[in-house]
């Protein structure tokens, strides 16, 4: 559905995007990530036809964004980080205005606007001024305008930035629902959001792709060790000492200790399972295991590893 080949963008001596290539299949939700200044917004602006590339090719459903701009853009619905809203219009007036700009046929236009409002759950505010809506509802109006014209592709740039937790959950659910019928590129600084919504992830850093895969595979690759959390009733120091002598365990670290119950983590090689040895060692010393579970790598771990950042952004703007 979307194909980007050898895309580059130069601003004088500055290389904003450097030989970027990836595909997004029909019906896929792709997370597009990177630290501030990595080239995400530049790439999305080229993808949507807002700016031109220095070199490379972008095609939307086989239409070249440079050679066939109108046909390509008809297939894209775009929600920029700051939705292009007119606050002195009602929701209905604004969506009618956008439908007119997009050339939505007058016959059936009212029904299409009504359907877009239904999908993003703003029908009940259709006659209110956009300027009187909450940030969450304004984001929904922004998504509704992106849906007009029946685009196959949705490009959503920071769709939940600045929202409260309840609004974030509502917008996430809306995006999941839209993913059933659309191909979506989602850019976000909120990494748990990407993990919850997206099928695959592209991570860009300094203009180049540094990771591209499904989230589970990226998480597996990011861990050099297997890490387990263990809660045991017994003396913390002795438990750590016994764990460290079990073959295959690299290290053990106490997280907390209270009333004779200690919670700790231990690490082993990723292809080594030492759970049986740990069980037998604790039983041999009559230290009952109260809980144990594996600690999975997260998208934050992957992000830090491939970008070299010392801080994982959770909210912000590029």
Question: What do you see in this structure?
Answer:
The chain is of the alpha/beta class and 318 residues long. It has 2 domains: 220 residues, 3-Layer(aba) Sandwich (Rossmann fold), CATH 3.40.50; 72 residues, Alpha-Beta Plaits (2-Layer Sandwich). Helix 4 packs across helix 5 and helix 8 crosses helix 11. The longest helix has 14 residues. The C terminus is likely disordered.
Task: Explain the layout of strands and helices.
Elements: E1 2-11, E2 14-24, E3 29-33, H1 40-47, E4 55-60, E5 63-64, H2 69-74, E6 76-79, H3 91-101, H4 109-119, H5 135-147, E7 153-157, H6 165-178, E8 183-187, H7 191-197, E9 200-205, E10 208-214, H8 215-222, E11 226-233, H9 236-244, E12 249-258, E13 261-268, H10 275-284, E14 289-295, H11 299-307
Helix pairs in contact: 4-5, 8-11
Biggest β-sheet, characterized?
A: 6 strands, mixed
What pattern of helices and strands is seen along the backbone? EEEHEEHEHHHEHEHEEHEHEEHEH
Count every beta strand, where a strand is a DSSP E run of 2 or more residues. 14
Q: Helical stretch count?
A: 11
What is the molecular shape?
A: elongated
Strand content: 25-35%
Q: In CATH, what is the class of the largest domain?
A: Alpha Beta
The average pLDDT value, as a whole number, equals 88
Q: What is the name of the CATH topology of the largest domain?
A: Rossmann fold
State the strand order across the main sheet. 6-7-8-3-9-10
Which stretches are low in confidence, meaning pLDDT under 50 for 5 or more residues running? 310-318
Number of domains: 2
Q: CA-to-CA gap between the ends?
A: 26 Å
Work out the helicity level: 25-40%
Query: Compute the gyration radius: what is it?
Result: 25 Å
The CATH architecture term of the largest domain is: 3-Layer(aba) Sandwich
Q: Specify the structural class.
A: alpha/beta
What is the assigned CATH homologous superfamily of the largest domain? P-loop containing nucleotide triphosphate hydrolases
């Amino acid at each position: 559905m979307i194909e980007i080949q050898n895309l580059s963008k130069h601003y004088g001596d500055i290389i904003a995007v450097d030989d970027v290539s990836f595909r997004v299949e029909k019906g896929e939700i792709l997370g597009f990530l990177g630290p501030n200044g990595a080239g995400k917004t530049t790439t999305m602006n080229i993808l949507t036809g807002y700016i031109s590339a220095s070199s490379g090719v972008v095609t939307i459903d086989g239409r070249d964004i440079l050679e066939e701009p109108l046909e390509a853009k008809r297939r894209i619905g775009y929600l920029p980080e700051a939705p292009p809203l007119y606050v002195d219009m009602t929701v209905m007036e604004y969506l009618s205005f956008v439908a007119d700009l997009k050339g939505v046929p007058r016959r059936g236009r009212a029904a299409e606007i009504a359907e877009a409002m239904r999908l993003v759950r703003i029908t009940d505010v259709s006659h209110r001024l956009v300027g009187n809506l909450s940030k969450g509802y304004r984001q929904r109006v922004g998504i509704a305008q992106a849906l007009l014209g029946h685009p196959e592709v949705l490009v959503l740039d920071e769709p939940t930035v600045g929202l409260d937790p309840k609004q974030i959950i509502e917008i996430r659910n809306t995006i999941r629902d839209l993913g059933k019928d659309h191909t979506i590129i989602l850019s976000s600084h909120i990494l748990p959001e990407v993990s919850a919504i997206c099928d695959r992830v592209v991570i860009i850093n300094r203009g180049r792709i540094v990771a591209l895969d499904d989230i589970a595979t990226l998480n597996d690759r990011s861990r050099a060790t297997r890490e387990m959390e263990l809660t045991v009733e017994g003396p913390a120091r002795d438990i750590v000492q016994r764990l460290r002598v079990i073959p295959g365990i690299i290290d053990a670290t106490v997280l907390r200790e209270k009333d004779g119950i200690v919670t700790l983590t231990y690490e082993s090689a990723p292809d080594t399972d030492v759970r049986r040895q740990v069980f037998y060692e604790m039983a041999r010393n009559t230290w009952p295991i109260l809980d144990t579970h594996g600690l999975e790598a997260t998208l934050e771990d992957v992000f830090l590893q491939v970008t070299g950042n010392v801080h994982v952004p959770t909210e912000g703007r590029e």
